[in-house]
Amino acid sequence: MDPLLREIRHTPLLWMLVFVPIVLVAARMVPAAHTLLFVLAVLAIVPLAALLSHATEAVSEKTGDAVGGLLNATLGNLTELIIAVTALRAGEYMLVKASIAGAIVTNSLFMLGASFLLGGLRYHVQEYNRAGGRMHAALLLMATIALLAPAAVSELDLAREAMAQNFSAALAILLIAAYGLSLLFSLKTHKELFASEDHGQTEEAKWPIKLAVGTLLVVTVLVALVSEIFVESVQHAAKTLGMSPAFVGFIIVALVGAAAEMAVAFSAARKNRLDMNVSIALGSASQIALFVAPVLVLLSYVVGPEPMDLQFWPGAVTMVMISTVTATFVTNSGRSAWFIGALLLFIYAIFAMTLYMVPPGSQGPA
Amino acid sequence: MDPLLREIRHTPLLWMLVFVPIVLVAARMVPAAHTLLFVLAVLAIVPLAALLSHATEAVSEKTGDAVGGLLNATLGNLTELIIAVTALRAGEYMLVKASIAGAIVTNSLFMLGASFLLGGLRYHVQEYNRAGGRMHAALLLMATIALLAPAAVSELDLAREAMAQNFSAALAILLIAAYGLSLLFSLKTHKELFASEDHGQTEEAKWPIKLAVGTLLVVTVLVALVSEIFVESVQHAAKTLGMSPAFVGFIIVALVGAAAEMAVAFSAARKNRLDMNVSIALGSASQIALFVAPVLVLLSYVVGPEPMDLQFWPGAVTMVMISTVTATFVTNSGRSAWFIGALLLFIYAIFAMTLYMVPPGSQGPA
Amino acid sequence: MDPLLREIRHTPLLWMLVFVPIVLVAARMVPAAHTLLFVLAVLAIVPLAALLSHATEAVSEKTGDAVGGLLNATLGNLTELIIAVTALRAGEYMLVKASIAGAIVTNSLFMLGASFLLGGLRYHVQEYNRAGGRMHAALLLMATIALLAPAAVSELDLAREAMAQNFSAALAILLIAAYGLSLLFSLKTHKELFASEDHGQTEEAKWPIKLAVGTLLVVTVLVALVSEIFVESVQHAAKTLGMSPAFVGFIIVALVGAAAEMAVAFSAARKNRLDMNVSIALGSASQIALFVAPVLVLLSYVVGPEPMDLQFWPGAVTMVMISTVTATFVTNSGRSAWFIGALLLFIYAIFAMTLYMVPPGSQGPA
C-alpha cells in the first residue's frame, strides 16, 4: 500500500478522493438532493478516473510489451465505459449516444485545443512527430466515418425498422474487428510509427503487481457505484440548472469522463511533449469510435431493457465530423502555436453554446 | 490473330471468355432464368472488359503520344459506359445514377483499398510519387464537387421543375469542358507531373494495329450484347437475392464494370508500383465524374425515353463525398501500409452493408 | 491633392470615377429606371472601392506598424461592410446574409481561381510560401466553421425562437473575440509566419497623411451614397433581368464589393507573387466570417428594423463549406498551375449557375 499512499500524498488531484465516501453517504441520506449529488459525484469521479488510469498503466507495465499495450489501449477509456454502461442499464440511450459523440468531440477539440493553448503560451512554436500525428489522425478520421456512415447516409426511417437492430449489431462487430486490426497495426506490425507514445507519469515509483491489480478492481467498483449516482442525478440536476439533455451528455459527461486523461495531457503540453497530447487526444477519440461505441451496442443486448442502435441525430453527426476533420487538418503540419489551440476551443465553445441553447426535446431521436 | 490467341492462352482471366457464347445462347433458350443469366452475364463481362482495355491500349500505343493518351483516357471506362448506355435505353435511370456514384466510390475506396492492402501485405511501407498522387486527388476532389454541387446545394423541388433538365444539360457541357481542359493539362502542358503513368501490361507482345482495332470493335459489340442481358436480368435477380436496387447499381454494376482495371491494379500493387494504382483508381474515378456522367446525360436526349438529370439522392452524395475526401486524405502523404488499405475496405463494406439493408424504395428519387 | 490626381491619371480603373456624379444625378432625375441605376451604381462603386483601399493603406502606412496593420485589417473589407449596412438599414436581411456567404465563396473560389489561372498562363508552375498559405487556410477554415456551426448543427426550429436572437448576439461576440485574437496572433506574437504580406501598390508615391485621411472620409461617404442607390435598384433590376435574390446577393454584390481587391490580386498573380494572392483572398474571406458578419449582427440592433440572426439557409452553408475546404486543400501544397485555377473557376461557375436557376423564393429563410 505504501506506493499508493505516497502517490496520493504527492498528487493534489487525488486528495479529492475524500468525495468518494461523501457522495456514497449523501446518496443514502438525501436521495432527493439531485443537484448536490450531481456535484459530489463529479468531484468523486475525477480522482477515481485518475487513479484508474494510473492503475491500468501499472498493470500493463508489468505484463510485458504486447499484452501491456493491449491492456492500456482497452482500458484507456474505462471510466467513460463504466458511466455509459450505467446509463445503458438505466435505459438512458439518448444519454449514452450523446456521451459517445461528445467524448469524440471533447477529445479532438477541447483536449487538443487546451493542450495547444497551454503549450503555446510557454513555447513560441511547438513541433511534434508529424508522421505519428498523421497516423493517429488518419485512424480517427476513418474510425468516425465508419461509426457515422450509416447515420449520414440514411437519415430515413431506417431507425424505425426492426432491421436497424441487426444492422447496428453487424456494424458493431465490423467496428470491433477494425479495432482489433488497428491494435495489430499500432502495437505489432508498425509500432515504430507510433514510437513516441510512452506516457509520462510512469517515470515515477513502480507499483507491485498485486497492488496494481487490486487498485484496478477496487476503483472499478467505486467508479461503478458513483456512476450510478451520477447518471441518476444528472438528468434532474440538468433540469434544475436549465441544461438540455443533449448538453449534459455531450459536454458534462464527456468532460467528467475525460478529466483524468486531460490532467496528464495538459502537463505534457507544458513540458513541450505535444506528441503525447496528440496521441492521447486522437487515440482516445478513435478508441471511443471503434471500441467503446460498438461494445455498448453489444452490451445493450445483455444489460439494457432493449437493444441500442447506432443512429445518431443529424446535429451530432455534423459536430463529430467537423471535430475530427478539424483535428486531422490541424495535426497535419506537425507544428502548433497558441492561436491554433484558441481556435479549437472557440469551435468547442460554439458547439457547447449551441447545445445549451437548443430547447430540450427539439433534437435527438425519440 | 496470333498475338491475340497467345495472349488468351497466357491469361487465365481471359479463359472466362467461354462464358460469352454461353450467356448469349442461354438468353435465347431460357429468357426467364434471370438469376442464372445475371451470373453468366457477370462472368462474361469481366474477361470482355479485360480484352477491351487491352485492345484500347494497343490502339493508343500505335497512334502516337497525344492521340494515344486521348484514346486511352476516353475509352478507359468504356465498359462502364456501355453498361450505362444499355440501362439508359431501358429507361433505368435510377440504375444509371447509382452506377455512376457507385463507380466513383468503388474506385476510390475498394480499388485503392485493396491495392494498398495487397501491396502492404508484401511490403512494410510503400512509398509512391506524392506529387502525382496529389494532382490526381485534387482533380478527383474537384470533379466530384462539380458533379455533386447542384445536388448538395439544392435538394429542394428543383428536381420537379422542367428547368432541371436544362440545368443538367448545361452542367454536363460544363463538366465535359472541364474534362477537355484536364486532358490538355495532363497530356500536354503539364504531363511531367503525371509521369509514372505508363500502364504495366504493355511490356508484353505488341499487337498489329489491324488486330487491335478489329478486337476493339468486335469486343465493343459483344459487351453491348451481354450488357443488355445483364441490365435485363440484374433487377429480377436482385429481387430474388433480396438486394435493393441501390445496392445493385452501387456495388454490383460498379464492381463488374471495374473488374478488368482492378486486375491490372492489384498486380501492380504486388509489384510495389503504387503510383500506377493511385493513377488508375483516382484517374478512373475522375473520368466517371467529368466524362462518363455528362456524356450519359447528353446521350439521354438521343437514346433514352426522356432526358436524364444529374440529381443524386442525398445518401449517394454523402457516400461519394466521403469516398473522395478519404481517398484525397490517404494519398496526400505518398506513403502506405496495409492498415490504410484495410480501413478503406472497412468503409466500403459499411457502405455496402448500409445499401444492402436499406429497404428497396425507401431511398432514391422516384 | 497632387499625388491623388497623379494617381488617378495613371490608373485607368480610376477614370471610372466619372460614374459617381452620373449615378448620383441619375438617381434624382430618373428614380424609377432601376436597371440603369443598378448598372451605373456598379460602375461607380468599383473605382470608389479601389480608391478606398488605397487610402486605407496610405493611412495605415503613416500610423506605424501595429496600428497600421490593425487599420488595414479592419478597413480591408470596408466596401462590403458599407453595402451590407445599407442593406441592413433597408431591412433586406436575406440580401445581407447572401452577400456575407457570397463574399466568402467569391474570395476563396473566384479570386483565388482567377489569380491561379492568370498566373499559370504566364508561369509553368508557381511556388509560394507554403507555411503562410497554410496558416491563412487554417484560419479561414476555422472561421467558417465557427460562423456556420450553429446553422449546420441545428437547422431545426431554432430560427423561429426568440432565443435565436440572443444566441446570434452571443455568437457574434465570440467571433469578434476570435478575430481580436487572430490580429494579436498575426500582427504581434507570430507575425513572422505571415511575413510576405506587404501589398504591392505601396511601392508608388506616398500620400501625405492629411490627404489620405481626407480621401478616406470623403470616399466612405460617397460609397455609402452610391450603395444606397445600388441596394434600392438591385432587387428591381434582378427581377427585370430574371435573377433570383440569392444570385444577386451571392454573386453580384460579392463581386462588386471585392472588385478593387481583385484588381490588386490579379496584377500580383501576373508578377508571380502568389503569396500576396493567397493572403488577400483567404485573409479577406476570414475577415468577412470573423469580423464583418458579427459586426453586422450587432449593428442590426442599432440600425435595422429588428435584430438579424446568423442562420444561413442550408445551400449557403454547403457552398461556403465546399469553398473553404477546397481553398484549404488547394493552398496546402504551396504550388499552383493554370488548371488548378480553372477548376476553382468551374466550381464557382457551377455555384453561380445553380443559384441563377433556383426559382426565386424556393430557397432562403422567410
Topology:
3 copies of one chain form a homotrimer.
Chain A: H1 2-10, H2 12-15, H3 19-29, H4 34-62, H5 65-75, H6 78-89, H7 93-122, E1 126-127, H8 130-153, H9 163-189, H10 209-241, H11 245-270, H12 274-303, H13 314-331, E2 335-336, H14 338-357
Antiparallel strand pairs in A: 1-2
Provide structural commentary.
- The structure is a homotrimer of 366-residue chains.
- Chain A has 366 residues and is mostly helical.
- Chain A is 78% helix and 1% strand.
- In chain A, helix 6 runs parallel beside helix 12.
- Chain A is globular, with a radius of gyration of 20 Å.
- The first copy, chain A, starts with a helix and ends in a 9-residue tail after the last helix.
- Chains in contact: A-B, A-C, B-C.
- The interface between A and B is medium-sized, with 33 and 30 residues.
Basic shape of chain A: globular
Q: How many DSSP E strands of chain A?
A: 2
Largest beta sheet: strand ordering of chain A: 1-2
Helix content of chain A: over 70%
Entry summary:
Chain A has helices at 2-10, 12-15, 19-29, 34-62, 65-75, 78-89, 93-122, 130-153, 163-189, 209-241, 245-270, 274-303, 314-331, 338-357, and strands spanning 126-127, 335-336.
Main attributes of the structure:
two-stranded antiparallel sheet, 2 strands, 366 residues, 78% helix, homotrimer, disordered C terminus
